[in-house]
Amino acid sequence: MSAVEVAIIGGGSAGLAAAVELAAHGVSLALIDSYAQLGGHYFKQGPPEAAQPKTADDRQGEFEELMGALEAREVVTLSETSVWAMFPNGEGMGFTLHLSGPHEIERLQAHYVVAAPGAYDRPLAIPGWQLPGVMTLGGAQMLLKGHGIRPGQRALVAGSGPLLLATAASLAEAGTEVAAVLDLASGWDGLRKAPQAFWGQFARLKDVWHYGSACLKYGIPIRFGQTIFQAMGEAAVTAAAYGRVDAQWRPRLDTAQTVEVDTLCVALGFLPNLALTRHLGCAHTYDPDVDAFYPQHDAAMETTVPGVYVAGDVTGIGGKALSKLQGQVAALGILQKLQYLTPSNAEAQLASLRRNIRAEQRFMAMLRDRMRIRPGLQQLIEPDTIVCRCEMVAAHQIHTAIREGARDLKGVKLRTRCGMGACQGRYCEPHVRQLVAAATCTTPDKVGHMAVRPPLLPLPISELLKTSESRRHTERL
Fold first, then answer.
1. What contacts 324, CB < 8 A, 6 or more positions away?
2. For FRET with 412, which of 23, 150, 249, 386 sits at 20 to 30 Å CA-CA?
């Protein structure tokens, strides 16, 4: 079994920033990421032979600088590796991480852990969203940036959040015709906070200008206060119905119109990836504005489980800049615990970081205004609409479970198999939670979570057998 002082889970902006800060002080660490290359979504690295979509800034140069800093310190990086379980060793004795990947390390001991698993797209459940050709905004970006694959010939981009324009621009630059961008938010949502939010945010203004200019160049119409009502087709998407929504995002079906497309890119902002923090028993707080739970943490980014720190989009959607700052703060907190830094030396650095964090949080507040989940979207879910795509559970089956006594997500799961598929409830849980809350006249936070148990991701039986064999061998010794 290998051992390090710090294990960082997630190789995006937050994880890379934490790794660079810790490595600079000589801390022994391992940086673990499930993808073939580090970088996360922001620094997504595609195959060398694929044509990459243009970006609004020099991300590649920044990424290479970060990687150079890690290579100079000989940081252990475990790519294509997932943490499928993690357990505390005892009071103050650190943690044991169980790994699955191409490397020889199956278990890793760490005194401290930085969990920076990021976030993923919140899907929009509509009739037909299980058809091939329907994907999230992040899924489209993954195909374009990660694999150099164009998702389709003609696309409709819809939902809410900062990826709308970016996805439309990337699709158009890759040769896909974008019929329209449909933004659920109105043109006025968050506008009051925009001057303060964008003050000093020149990189973000450059992004907006780049993506907006691309939409103008390719003649992509941007329609506020509208969304997709239904995906149409038999074996795959061939068309979509869309129209206006009211202030509570209730669909105005009288405005519906149809457009022929073979690709629908849809997402309602993001959801934090909580599998690890929930598995560890960290306390979480429910945010009703974005209908999501977030791990509680102190000013040093340490959770309610001592030794476990969080950073990045798992704490709330703030983008690359905020993720990087939080990664640095978490690293400084750990450096104090390991006595690599005195409190006074750490505090001098933290003061500057916290000022920058406050500036980023102002931008985050504007995004929250625009991405605030309104209850009217539940009206798009019809009785036959598939809610759990892994197990093909329809809305009427969930309502039957509620009539039979289900009052939380566990009750629905036991009666319908919702959340028992490959995604482990990541995509259906928010929809089921809202349906149960509405039917039982309670609030979504009271409905709770689906249980999280190891393995935290689909795992080959061979991995479990290896762990079992290793344990028996250790017991014989």
1. 13, 14, 16, 17
2. 249
Q: What is the DSSP letter of 297?
A: -
Q: What is the DSSP letter of 281?
A: T
Residues constituting the chain:
477
Share in percent of the chain as helix, strand, coil (round to 5) = 40, 20, 40
Determine the Cα–Cα distance for residues 388 and 381; give it in Å rounded to an integer.
12
Two tokens, residue 167: 């996805």
What tokens were used for 277?
A: 């923090």
Phi first, then psi, for residue 241 (nearest 5°) are -100, 135
Specify whether the CB–CB gap between 146 and 174 falls below 8 A: no
Alpha-carbon distance of 230 to 129, in angstroms, equals 8
Quote the CA–CA distance of 206 and 59 in Å, as a whole number: 13
Q: What are phi and psi of 313, to 5 degrees?
A: -65, -15
For 232: left if phi > 0, alpha if psi spans -120 to 50, otherwise beta; the answer is beta
Q: What is the 3-state secondary structure (H, E, C) of 181-207?
A: EEECCCCCCCHHHHHHHHCCCHHHHHH
What is the CA angle 197-332-344, rounded to 5? 100
Here the tokens at position 444 are 């979504």
Four-CA torsion 342, 348, 354, 359, nearest 10 degrees: -160
Alpha carbon 341 to its chain centroid, in Å, reads: 32
Distances (CA, A) of 417 to 230, 289, 422, 435: 25, 28, 12, 16
Rounded Cα gap, residues 348 and 324, in angstroms: 18
Whether residue 363 contacts residue 201, with contact meaning beta carbons closer than 8 Å, is answered with yes
Residue with tokens 């964090």: 357
Tens-level pLDDT at each residue, the chain (477 residues) = 589 999 999 998 999 999 999 999 999 999 999 988 777 666 665 555 554 444 445 677 777 777 777 876 778 899 999 999 999 997 778 999 999 988 888 899 999 999 999 999 999 999 999 999 999 999 999 899 878 899 999 999 999 988 899 999 999 999 999 999 999 998 777 666 666 666 667 677 777 888 889 999 999 999 999 999 999 999 999 999 999 999 999 999 999 999 999 999 999 989 999 999 999 999 999 999 889 999 999 999 999 999 999 999 999 877 888 999 999 999 999 999 999 998 888 888 888 898 888 888 877 877 778 888 998 999 999 999 999 999 999 999 999 999 999 999 999 999 999 999 988 899 999 999 999 999 999 999 999 888 888 888 888 777 777 665 555 444 443
CA distance 142 to 440: 38
